[in-house]
Amino acid sequence: MTSPVRLCLVLHNHQPVGNFDRVFEDAYNDSYLPFLDVFESYEDLRISLHTSGPLMEWLDRRRGEYLDRVADLVSRGRIEIVGGPFAEPILTMIPPRDRRGQIRRYTECLQHRFGAAVRGMWVPERVWEQSVTADLVDAGIEYTVLDDFHFRNAGCSSDLLHGYFVTEDNGRLLKVFPGSERLRYLIPFGKPEETIEDLREMGERHPGAVAVFGDDGEKFGTWPETKQHVYDDGWLRSFFDALVENGDWLETATLSSAVDQTAPLDKIYLPDASYREMTEWVLPVDRHLDYETTKHEFQESGHWRQVEQFVRGGFWRNFKVRYPEADEMYARMMMVSQRLERLEQDGLGGGDLEQARAALYRGQCNCSYWHGAFGGIYLPHLRNAVYANLIEADNLLDQFEGKSKWVEARADDFNFDGRPEVRLENDRFVCLLAPAAGGRMYEFDIRRSRHNLLATLTRQPEAYHRKVLAGATDSEAEDVASIHDRVVFKQDGLDQRLQYDRHLRKSLVDHFYDNDATLESVANGQALERGDFVDGAFETTIRRNDDRVQVMMTRPGNAWGRPLTITKGVTLESGSSELEVAYRIDGLAPDEFFHFAVEFNFAGLPSGADDRYFYAADRQRLGHLGAMLDLYDQSQLGMVDQWLGVDAQLGADRPTHFWTFPIESVSQSEGGFELVHQSLVVMPHWLVKGDADGRWGVTMRLQVETEENSGSARQYEHENQSPFTSSDRAANELECSMFRSEVSRRH
After folding, report:
1. Nearest CA-CA partner of 476 in 467, 426, 320, 281
2. What is the pLDDT of residue 352?
3. What secondary structure letter does DSSP report for 231?
């Protein structure tokens, strides 16, 4: 070949905000470190490396020697550092100001840490909308990598994708490389010679071609069974040997050298897209199944290759529709971002604002906002981490504004659904209420613990549940498979644990059941709903005085066809750690019993642990937080999570029956199918009848005490102290320059 083929190997190493320390450690030992160990000895090879901000912070705290080795390879031109938004957000999900801010902040930190210019960036999950072009360029980015799927959707045939293109928005020019989907599946799952042969054929058709592999570094050791395959069985060394042996016509190149040494193929405008699998996962379940059926039919007929580029799945933003809880996190994130922007527009700034910005950025980390082959939104610890950072940002902004003890409520369309919600808060709690959706409470933040007790997840059908019902096993696969193809069950009997909810698992959800309904029938979803209050719209008024605010919600509805009116009041006082919830039902017959229940959910309180338990009014333990309890004529039920540092007590002013049961989902992650504890339901219930005026009422009090020195608080403080997010730029530059000096001494 007259001109060599350039292969750009672009590794994307990432762990999300809030992931367990052992997961970081395992990924380091199984992927990041062994890859570097093998790569270092191949002097002629070059790669481009992107490491996400959350992972970089962990490496800086725990494995600084690894970063020093990377820095040495950067100085020798063997590794190009690829930037990106600091906390790995989906760019289209966050405001433009935060896109630019995240990219600039991380670029600055990387350049100080590694002593080299950052010219390109990784687009998280390759989620693309053309309008982000201008933001990337304004943030100092010259080029990026997307999937060839984006380019094929724009009308390009695969044979034309042998270099990079130029795209434009509002006069800003950005260079864009198409990452090969075929290489994503060949590396490391195919034989090295298959990749070599593909590149040889490309070079014969297009001398001087540029081919790009861009994918997760965790494929090299962390994904199931890949450590044995990639390292123990020698796949990576065989692959690198093959690259070296074919060095007369094939060279590895960084993205920067490809840009500097080759011209763009053409100009292009790309449609909204992500990688192919992501566009399938976002589809509603029935459409996803239809998509798969249609795809298989075309594959069997031999026509898939002809129609593939014209077939698209869904739009990433609709994950906020697929999972209402993702939309809740998004809306909460936007509250913080908009509040920070308002303060800046008023000309204010300072340390607390910068610390709040860092917490906001962490709260934008993408992994808990969607779901596919990875656990994503189904993983409670990832949702909890997002809320922890958003609550921390709010706390810092309160400090900045000099708030001490206060209570306030305001109504606005906080979740962008065209209907008003109510934000009720004091210096202890933040409560978000949705009067138009059953008057439910859908967020309950404990400020001191930085924890949302309503970071729940509703169980719903998933396309992969048909595999769970089919009962397939991983014994069917003989070779190492991509996580998109594996079928592994981490527990037995998961097909018996599938259950779907008829309503969102939130609090102040009002139920009417048959009088003989049981704990089991309610827990397994067989009890019939006899009223129309669960999702019905409530009218709302807010009553205020200096130290007390009450939100009153009223709905005329019916149960068993009988007209009833429910009025519920949620009251919060300044400085109080108690939420008062009062109910009144009008229209009841004095001689007829109705079975009325109020559902509360508590998230982030795991089951099956000795230090997380229910207790009665006399503090007697009643079982762990996954226990199914059927209690009669109680005045109070308590819940303790000693690690989180939360002690919650729900009491009532009249004898009350309590049901409790866990909400557990069957979900998919890269490790296989598993049962995940999402929340626990506490449901006070009564057989009610009217007084002489046809009324019945109860007042409940939810009191939450917290421990400042809890395990979760210590972990949060530890995980969020890093020179990569210093609030003072001068200090940041000093620390980063100190890192460089240390690197020079070691090498």
Report:
1. 467
2. 79
3. I
Q: Please write the tens of the pLDDT for every residue from 88-107.
A: 999 999 999 999 999 999 99
Which CA distances in Å does 181 have to 289, 347, 374, 487?
22, 47, 18, 21
Helices (H) and strands (E) in the chain — how many of each?
Answer: 23, 26
Predicted pLDDT at 722: 66
Amino acid identity, position 679: S
> DSSP string spanning 61-86?
HH-HHHHHHHHHHHHTTSEEEEB--T
Query: Do 638 and 517 fall within a single domain?
Result: yes
The mean pLDDT value of the chain amounts to 91
In a domain, 439, yes or no: no
Question: Does the residue 435 lie in any domain?
Answer: no
Distance CA 372, CA 637 (A): 37
Quick one: average pLDDT of 57-78? 97
* The dihedral formed by the CA atoms of 165, 171, 172 and 173, expressed in degrees to the nearest 10: 20
| pTM given for the model | 0.93
165 and 34: one domain? yes
Residue 475: which pLDDT band, with cuts at 50, 70 and 90?
Answer: very low
Higher pLDDT: 741 or 632? It is 632
d(CA 168, CA 708): 50
Question: What whole-number distance in Å separates Cα of residue 594 and Cα of residue 614?
Answer: 28
Tokens at 372, concatenated:
């596919």
Q: Do 359 and 497 sit in the same domain of this protein?
A: no
CB 551 within 8 A of CB 570: yes
418, burial (CB in 10 Å: exposed 0-12, middle 13-18, buried 19+)? exposed
Q: Which of 217, 252, 272 is the last residue of a domain?
A: 272
Evaluate whether 566 touches 554 at the Cβ level (below 8 Å).
yes
pLDDT band of 723, cuts 50, 70, 90: low
Task: Give the pLDDT confidence score for residue 250 in this predicted structure.
Answer: 97
412 domain residue, yes or no: no
Q: Is 725 exposed, middle or buried (0-12, 13-18, 19+ CB in 10 A)?
A: buried
Task: Please work out, in degrees rounded to the nearest 5, the angle formed at the alpha carbon of residue 160 by the alpha carbons of 155 and 163.
Answer: 115
Asked whether the bond before 188 is cis by omega within 30 degrees of 0, the reply is: yes
**How many domains are there within the chain?**
3
Residue 511 in tokens: 């139920």
**Buried-exposed string 77-100: b where 16+ CB fall within 10 A, e elsewhere:** ebbbbbbbbbbbbbbbbbeeebbb
User: Which whole number is the average pLDDT over 402-409?
Assistant: 92
From residue 684, alpha-carbon distances to 605, 680, 711 in Å are 19, 13, 30
Q: 61-70, 225-234, 240-249, 345-354: which has the minimum mean pLDDT? A: 345-354
Max CA separation in the chain (angstroms): 98
pLDDT confidence bin for 739, thresholds 50/70/90: very low
Evaluate the CA torsion angle 523, 525, 526, 527 in order and state its sign.
positive
- What is the pLDDT at residue 486? 56
Q: Which helix (H) or strand (E) holds 176?
A: strand 172-179
End-to-end Cα, the chain, rounded Å: 38
Domain range holding 397? 315-403
Beta bridge partners of 176: 144, 165
Q: In degrees, to the nearest 5, what angle opens at C-alpha 100 toward C-alphas 97 and 105?
A: 120
User: Helix 351-362 to helix 380-400 angle, to the nearest 10 degrees?
Assistant: 160
* Residue 286 clears pLDDT 60, i.e. is over it: yes
Tokens of 531: 């009223």
Contact at 8 Å (CB) between 114 and 74? Answer: yes
Residues 488 and 634 in one domain: yes
Q: What is the pLDDT of residue 744?
A: 32
Instruction: Judge whether residue 727 has pLDDT over 50.
Output: no
Residue 366 contacts residue 93 (beta carbons within 8 Å): yes
Query: Which helix or strand (DSSP H or E) is residue 425 part of?
Result: strand 421-426
Closest CA to 57 of 105, 17, 11: 17
Q: Active-site residue numbers?
A: 125, 216
The helix (H) or strand (E) run that includes residue 113 is helix 96-114
Last residue of a domain, one of 386, 403, 420: 403
